[in-house]
Design a protein that fits this description.
mainly beta; 5-stranded antiparallel sheet; about 0% helix
Length: about 425
């Protein structure tokens, strides 16, 4: 997430009206620069296919009119759906204050929304409950737009295991992973159950680039994104720090255990929690159980936003920052291992500003879009999608006219797998629904 002057808040709503479906955005908006100027040099070796550019021609999304019911497909007739005309945003909850993440672990009518300043709220059947689910205002530092209560994930066996995990910035500017036990009614946590699991040291003045997304993989392990603390020369390529990394831990041992197979599990050449490295600010990422892939939106520096896709079972990958910014050399240096190139780049001269990694659609209401990945831009509010074919982003589509948003901060999914969109500026959580 990129820190912006408040005058930029709401810019996405105005811009969205000018977008057309199936075409990418063309206007240029400048962003304040914050780091070292690039030095030309020959790029290090790259391990993946070069990034797809945003000027690639759009391919229409394939349509289908039949979806099988999941439980008795062999014994019942197929469900016949009308042709998909368009998508729409269905508001679920409003009146939220700076929401940044959402979770709906089970189909019980409850949804949980993080508010950046330190509270998590319960949404019950569309109504925001007055009593907070979690109130960390006494623990959280939220002076900067990149600080606060940043990520949430429920134990994959919830409600059998009633733990919920949250990531927040501390008063001293360090990052902290904590867990709580959820009360039996699901509407609050038990404050006395607070357990501090992992503290990430940061310099007192390194307020930016905290990332903070939490997601469980199909392996039952907890993955954590951590930004580089706005220290590109010090942290992302240094495996002995947790900054600029994706971490991978086993939380079934308290406070946690090092997951088997972590590349630096013995602690000799890196921190044992590190799974992947070479990130700038991986604000949002997602895991897709069906494909076994992780999708990471890494916020760029001066010219390029990046989306990376890699197999979850691939330890020790290096995603290049700050040696590379997307497919372009950024700083001098030699990588110890081949670098993983982004699958997709969004350039700042093509309406990119601050990428918001999203989710792969695996619901049942829109079978035409099964496997399509939805993502957004923080500054401009547009929402786009593509399908990953194993090497490139294909079937790309711009949904900005159909899915207008002010400032998207995150995506999620409800208990049935339908996609949710969190609008930071509007204070709304919406569901993406089909119009047939």
């Amino acid at each position: 997430m990129r820190e912006l002057p408040r005058s930029k808040v709401g810019i996405g709503t105005a811009l969205a009206a000018a977008f057309t479906i199936g075409s990418l955005l063309g206007a240029h908006t400048s962003v304040a620069q914050t780091s070292v100027a690039p030095t030309p040099a020959a790029p290090p070796p790259v391990a993946q296919t070069p990034a797809a550019q945003t000027s690639v021609a759009q391919t229409p999304v394939a349509q289908t009119s039949v979806a099988q019911t999941s439980s008795t497909a062999a014994a019942t007739a197929p469900v016949v759906l009308s042709p998909l005309k368009k998508l729409s945003l269905q508001p679920i909850a409003s009146g939220l204050v700076e929401p940044v993440d959402v979770a709906a672990p089970i189909d019980d009518g409850l949804m949980y929304v993080l508010q950046r300043a330190g509270q998590a709220r319960v949404v019950e059947n569309g109504r925001v409950l007055k009593e907070p689910f979690l109130n960390l205002k006494g623990f959280v530092k939220s002076n900067s737009i990149e600080q606060g209560l940043l990520g949430i994930a429920f134990h994959p066996k919830y409600p059998v295991d009633r733990r919920v995990f949250v990531f927040h910035t501390r008063k001293d500017n360090d990052n902290l992973l904590v867990s709580y036990t959820v009360a039996p009614d699901g509407r609050r946590v038990e404050p006395a159950s607070r357990t501090e699991l992992l503290r990430i040291d940061k310099a007192p003045d390194a307020i930016r680039h905290n990332a903070g997304a939490l997601r469980f993989g199909p392996d039952g392990l907890l993955y954590i994104s951590v930004g580089d603390g706005a220290r590109p020369k010090e942290n992302p390529q240094n495996t002995k720090t947790l900054l600029g990394k994706i971490l991978r831990i086993d939380i079934d041992t308290v406070p946690y255990a090092i997951a088997p197979g972590n590349p630096f599990a013995d602690g000799k050449n890196g921190r044992p929690e590190v799974w992947w490295y070479g990130f700038r600010n991986p604000w949002r990422f997602s895991t897709d159980a069906e494909s076994g892939l992780m999708y990471v939106g890494d916020v760029g520096q001066e010219t390029i936003e990046e989306i990376h896709i890699a197999k979850l079972d691939s330890p020790g990958l290096n995603f290049g920052w700050p040696l590379m910014q997307g497919s372009k050399r950024y700083l001098k240096g030699t990588a110890a291992t081949p670098l993983v190139a982004p699958v997709l780049e969004v350039r700042h001269d093509d309406n990119g500003c601050s990428i918001v990694g999203g989710e792969v659609y695996r619901g049942t209401a829109i079978p035409e879009l099964n496997g399509h990945y939805f993502y957004a831009d923080w500054c401009f509010g547009w929402i786009q999608s593509f399908r990953y074919d194993g090497s490139a982003a294909v079937d790309r589509k711009d949904w900005s006219k159909q899915l207008p948003a002010a400032m998207v901060s995150s995506f999620g999914h409800d208990a049935k797998g339908e996609l949710l969109v969190v609008d930071y500026d509007a204070g709304v959580v919406s569901r993406i629904v089909p119009v047939r």
